[in-house]
Amino acid sequence: DLISPSEILSQMAGEGDGNKFLKRFKEDGDFNQYWYSKHSIDTIVGEIEKVAKKAAFLSTPSLFFSLTSQEIRENSKVFDIDNKWKRDPGFVYYDFKKPEEIPQELHHSFDCIVIDPPFITREVWEQYRDAAELLAAKGATYVCTTIQENADMMFEILGVRPTK
Q1: Helix 151-158 and helix 122-135: axis angle, to 10°?
Q2: How many helices (H) does the chain have, and how many strands (E)?
Q3: Torsion sign (Cα): 127, 129, 132, 136
Protein backbone atom coordinates (compact mmCIF):
# COMPACT_ATOMS: atom_id res chain seq x y z
CA ASP A 1 0.00 0.00 0.00
CA LEU A 2 1.16 3.51 -0.78
CA ILE A 3 1.01 5.98 2.06
CA SER A 4 0.79 9.70 1.43
CA PRO A 5 2.82 12.22 3.47
CA SER A 6 -0.35 13.68 4.96
CA GLU A 7 -1.51 10.18 5.97
CA ILE A 8 1.83 9.52 7.65
CA LEU A 9 1.74 12.79 9.55
CA SER A 10 -1.94 12.62 10.49
CA GLN A 11 -1.68 9.02 11.65
CA MET A 12 1.43 9.84 13.66
CA ALA A 13 -0.21 12.87 15.28
CA GLY A 14 -2.33 10.79 17.66
CA GLU A 15 -2.23 11.07 21.41
CA GLY A 16 -0.13 9.05 23.80
CA ASP A 17 3.43 8.94 24.92
CA GLY A 18 4.43 6.08 22.60
CA ASN A 19 6.20 6.62 19.31
CA LYS A 20 3.56 7.29 16.68
CA PHE A 21 5.58 5.65 13.91
CA LEU A 22 5.72 2.43 15.93
CA LYS A 23 1.99 2.58 16.59
CA ARG A 24 1.15 3.05 12.93
CA PHE A 25 3.63 0.89 11.03
CA LYS A 26 4.25 -2.79 11.54
CA GLU A 27 7.59 -4.45 10.96
CA ASP A 28 7.85 -6.25 7.62
CA GLY A 29 9.95 -9.40 7.50
CA ASP A 30 9.76 -9.43 3.69
CA PHE A 31 11.99 -6.34 3.72
CA ASN A 32 13.86 -7.41 6.87
CA GLN A 33 12.35 -4.32 8.52
CA TYR A 34 12.56 -4.41 12.27
CA TRP A 35 12.03 -1.17 14.15
CA TYR A 36 14.01 0.22 17.04
CA SER A 37 12.31 0.54 20.43
CA LYS A 38 10.72 3.88 21.36
CA HIS A 39 13.63 4.61 23.70
CA SER A 40 16.19 3.84 20.97
CA ILE A 41 14.33 5.98 18.42
CA ASP A 42 14.14 8.90 20.86
CA THR A 43 17.83 8.58 21.73
CA ILE A 44 19.09 8.24 18.15
CA VAL A 45 16.82 11.01 16.80
CA GLY A 46 18.02 13.27 19.63
CA GLU A 47 21.64 12.69 18.62
CA ILE A 48 20.90 13.22 14.92
CA GLU A 49 19.07 16.48 15.62
CA LYS A 50 22.13 17.77 17.53
CA VAL A 51 24.43 17.41 14.52
CA ALA A 52 22.35 17.44 11.33
CA LYS A 53 20.85 20.07 9.12
CA LYS A 54 20.36 17.70 6.18
CA ALA A 55 20.55 13.95 6.79
CA ALA A 56 20.46 10.87 4.57
CA PHE A 57 18.57 8.05 6.30
CA LEU A 58 19.70 4.77 4.72
CA SER A 59 17.20 2.00 5.49
CA THR A 60 16.00 3.84 8.61
CA PRO A 61 12.41 4.99 8.00
CA SER A 62 11.55 4.70 11.70
CA LEU A 63 14.15 7.39 12.45
CA PHE A 64 13.32 9.64 9.49
CA PHE A 65 9.60 9.65 10.23
CA SER A 66 10.25 10.21 13.94
CA LEU A 67 12.27 13.41 13.52
CA THR A 68 10.93 16.16 15.75
CA SER A 69 12.60 19.00 13.83
CA GLN A 70 10.44 19.94 10.87
CA GLU A 71 13.36 21.82 9.30
CA ILE A 72 15.65 18.79 9.39
CA ARG A 73 12.82 16.55 8.14
CA GLU A 74 12.17 18.84 5.15
CA ASN A 75 15.88 18.97 4.25
CA SER A 76 16.52 15.24 4.64
CA LYS A 77 15.82 12.11 2.61
CA VAL A 78 14.92 8.54 3.52
CA PHE A 79 16.55 5.99 1.21
CA ASP A 80 14.62 2.73 1.29
CA ILE A 81 13.55 -0.19 -0.88
CA ASP A 82 9.99 -0.21 0.48
CA ASN A 83 7.82 1.72 -1.96
CA LYS A 84 5.07 2.26 0.59
CA TRP A 85 6.92 5.49 1.48
CA LYS A 86 7.22 6.73 -2.12
CA ARG A 87 4.50 9.38 -1.87
CA ASP A 88 6.52 11.19 0.77
CA PRO A 89 8.64 13.97 -0.81
CA GLY A 90 11.60 12.82 1.28
CA PHE A 91 11.56 9.28 -0.13
CA VAL A 92 14.28 8.03 -2.49
CA TYR A 93 14.05 4.48 -3.79
CA TYR A 94 17.23 2.72 -2.70
CA ASP A 95 18.47 -0.81 -3.28
CA PHE A 96 21.60 -1.23 -1.16
CA LYS A 97 22.99 -3.64 -3.77
CA LYS A 98 23.00 -0.80 -6.32
CA PRO A 99 24.43 2.32 -4.63
CA GLU A 100 25.51 3.62 -8.03
CA GLU A 101 21.81 4.23 -8.81
CA ILE A 102 21.53 6.99 -6.20
CA PRO A 103 20.55 10.14 -8.11
CA GLN A 104 23.59 12.29 -8.94
CA GLU A 105 21.90 15.46 -7.68
CA LEU A 106 22.03 14.01 -4.15
CA HIS A 107 25.72 13.19 -4.19
CA HIS A 108 27.88 14.89 -1.53
CA SER A 109 24.97 16.90 -0.15
CA PHE A 110 24.26 15.50 3.34
CA ASP A 111 25.94 16.53 6.58
CA CYS A 112 24.78 13.42 8.43
CA ILE A 113 24.51 9.84 7.16
CA VAL A 114 22.33 7.48 9.21
CA ILE A 115 22.73 3.77 8.47
CA ASP A 116 21.08 0.60 9.76
CA PRO A 117 21.39 -2.15 7.16
CA PRO A 118 18.98 -5.07 7.00
CA PHE A 119 21.96 -7.43 7.34
CA ILE A 120 25.17 -6.94 9.34
CA THR A 121 27.72 -8.71 7.16
CA ARG A 122 30.92 -7.11 5.85
CA GLU A 123 29.67 -7.28 2.25
CA VAL A 124 26.46 -5.43 3.10
CA TRP A 125 28.28 -2.80 5.18
CA GLU A 126 30.67 -2.23 2.25
CA GLN A 127 27.70 -1.57 -0.03
CA TYR A 128 26.29 0.89 2.50
CA ARG A 129 29.71 2.51 2.76
CA ASP A 130 29.69 3.02 -1.02
CA ALA A 131 26.30 4.76 -0.76
CA ALA A 132 27.45 6.83 2.22
CA GLU A 133 30.54 8.00 0.35
CA LEU A 134 28.35 9.14 -2.53
CA LEU A 135 25.96 11.02 -0.24
CA ALA A 136 28.27 12.52 2.38
CA ALA A 137 29.37 16.13 2.20
CA LYS A 138 32.89 16.88 3.40
CA GLY A 139 33.06 16.44 7.17
CA ALA A 140 29.76 14.57 7.42
CA THR A 141 28.81 12.80 10.64
CA TYR A 142 27.99 9.10 10.52
CA VAL A 143 25.36 7.49 12.76
CA CYS A 144 25.51 3.71 12.35
CA THR A 145 23.88 0.95 14.33
CA THR A 146 25.18 -2.60 14.49
CA ILE A 147 26.32 -5.18 17.01
CA GLN A 148 29.36 -4.62 19.25
CA GLU A 149 31.18 -7.52 17.57
CA ASN A 150 31.33 -5.45 14.37
CA ALA A 151 33.34 -2.62 15.99
CA ASP A 152 36.68 -3.46 14.33
CA MET A 153 35.04 -4.05 10.96
CA MET A 154 33.17 -0.73 11.20
CA PHE A 155 36.44 1.08 11.82
CA GLU A 156 38.02 -0.66 8.82
CA ILE A 157 35.11 0.08 6.50
CA LEU A 158 33.87 3.51 7.62
CA GLY A 159 36.45 4.75 10.10
CA VAL A 160 33.84 4.91 12.88
CA ARG A 161 34.06 3.71 16.47
CA PRO A 162 31.30 2.95 18.98
CA THR A 163 30.31 5.89 21.14
CA LYS A 164 28.02 4.17 23.62
Answers
A1: 40
A2: 7, 5
A3: negative
Q: What are the Cα distances from residue 6, in Å, to 2, 13, 58?
A: 12, 10, 22
Q: How far is the C-alpha of 8 from the C-alpha of 120, rounded, in Å?
A: 29
User: How confident is the model at residue 23, as a pLDDT?
Assistant: 60
Q: Write phi, then psi, for 124 (nearest 5 degrees).
A: -65, -45
Mean pLDDT of 87-102: 94
Return all residues near 134 (Cβ < 8 A) that are at least 6 apart.
99, 100, 102, 106, 107, 108
Q: What is the pLDDT of residues 138-152, one digit of tens each?
A: 999 999 888 788 888
User: Which DSSP state fits 74?
Assistant: H
Query: Can you tell me the distance from the alpha carbon of 13 to that of 29, in angstroms, rounded to the nearest whole number?
Result: 26
Q: Tell me the average pLDDT of the chain.
A: 82
- pLDDT at position 8 is 43
